[in-house]
Design brief:
Length: 435
């Protein structure tokens, strides 16, 4: 009787390349979650509305949206390694642009820095996911990707912690109202000091990324087999087929709503928590730092729930799990909107458990059965991250014109759409097959 040898998740010859690319998953998680609290921080620093400050997220996630398809075409023409290197280069440049941006004392140079940085993140995400899949046997590719993705929340938690302890906690303690009452010269001194505080972590991470660029540039990495084969990409045919695929089109919309909801929930946890703690007697600066702790708690809940939901996929179809998670998001949004206080804040943190597996679940449902069209299809789903550019801006407008509690109606609506997509996927494709 012949005994078959189980393929390793990572072969010994590819261990170092795997570690290097997996580190990139943590790096883009760090960038995402150090940036979310800056919407609140820039509002205080520049004495501007949340609507204007939300252009931080417009610039940040706009880079993802605009660069996803160009990244896919670049990778197809060259290689995964080339895509990783270009992504790291743009990431490093974006971080280092914080040096002149902080010196200007203006808001828009920071937006340019965020945009360039996230053009790099778009290349990294578009390259790293399929690159990890290709580093070994196809039979272990999903396990390999899940292992790499487990490091993304670690980067996210680290980014949120740095934002809390090395940005929010080190900014000047004067409230927005107190800053507005200062003479112009004194206001400018405090503003420039706070901008130096914001600059420091981005310059450090930009320097780390530059070192990573050099290491990967010099390290021999596995080749992109599809590039080596010379197999072309039928862009027109692929776009036509994807456009006629209802499940894929709805999946792109669901992904846009999901990313928008996620960024809204996490970005404005600071504003929500600040209001809660100020109502309990804290000054604005202290309340903001305390609220930052709840952003970290939300990310920890998100990371733990991801493992729990992955286990549940053994017993539930992706569509039914997605529907259940989205319904949970709707139900938890209700006390956030209608009850407020600590109960609302706890519910806001708990929403992260419901969001934990939405992105990969929508990703898998949308691309099921599309075959080779998955190359551009995956780029379309990364492009849907652009939902994180538009929806936070709309929520900021609601915060400025109504209040922060009511603004969470927007994520609730997003969860309703995702629940409908999960239900349709479950009913039409109950075992994940193609109709």
């Amino acid at each position: 009787m012949t005994q078959t040898t189980k393929a390793p998740i990572i072969s010994s010859g590819l261990l170092v390349p795997f570690i290097l690319i997996t580190f990139c998953f943590a790096l883009w998680g760090f960038a995402n979650d150090i940036t979310n609290p800056l919407v609140s921080a820039f509002g205080r620093i520049f004495n501007q509305s949340q609507t204007i400050s939300s252009f931080t997220q417009v610039a940040f996630y706009g880079g993802y949206c605009l660069m996803a398809i160009p990244a896919a075409l670049f990778i197809k023409k060259y290689s995964y390694k080339s895509g990783i290197l270009l992504g790291l280069a743009l990431y490093a440049v974006g971080g280092l642009i914080f040096i002149p941006a902080a010196s200007t004392g203006l808001f828009w140079p920071f937006l340019a820095a965020f945009f360039i940085l996230t053009c790099g993140l778009s290349f990294l995400e578009t390259s790293a996911n399929p690159y990890i899949l290709s580093m070994g046997e196809e039979s272990t590719s999903t396990q390999r990707l899940n292992l790499a993705q487990a490091f993304n929340p670690i980067g996210s938690i680290t980014g949120a912690w740095v934002a809390k302890d090395f940005i929010l906690a080190k900014m000047n303690k004067l409230s927005t109202a107190e800053r507005a009452a200062l003479p112009k010269e004194e206001f400018e001194v405090i503003k420039m000091s706070d901008l130096q505080v914001i600059k420091a972590p981005y310059v450090i991470i930009g320097s780390v990324i530059a070192v990573m660029f050099i290491i990967i540039l010099l390290k021999k990495m596995p080749r992109n087999k599809e590039v080596d084969s010379g197999k072309g990409l039928d862009i027109k045919g692929t776009m036509n087929r994807l456009w006629s695929n209802i499940r894929y089109k709805e999946g792109v919309l669901a992904q846009a709503f999901y990313v928008g909801a996620q960024i809204c929930v996490w970005t404005y946890t600071i504003q929500y928590g600040t209001k809660v703690f100020m109502d309990r007697g804290m000054i604005e600066a202290e309340a903001s730092v305390e609220a930052g702790s709840y952003t970290i708690y939300a990310l920890i809940v998100f990371a733990v729930a991801r493992f729990a939901c992955t286990f549940l996929l053994k017993y539930l179809t992706p569509g039914s799990l997605l529907m259940a998670l989205a319904i949970g998001g709707v139900l938890l949004s209700i006390p956030v909107i209608a009850v407020g206080g600590m109960i609302g804040l706890y519910a806001l943190v708990a929403i992260s458990a419901c969001m934990s597996l939405m992105f990969p679940t929508i990703y898998g449902i949308a691309l099921k059965g599309v075959g080779d069209d998955a190359k551009l299809g995956a780029a379309g789903l990364v492009m849907a991250i652009g939902g994180g550019a538009l929806l936070p801006y709309l929520q900021a407008y609601m915060i400025d014109t109504i209040d922060v509690n009511t603004s969470y109606i927007l994520p609730l609506i997003c969860f309703v759409f995702i629940a409908i997509y999960g239900f349709r996927s479950y009913k039409k494709y109950p075992v994940g097959g193609v109709e």
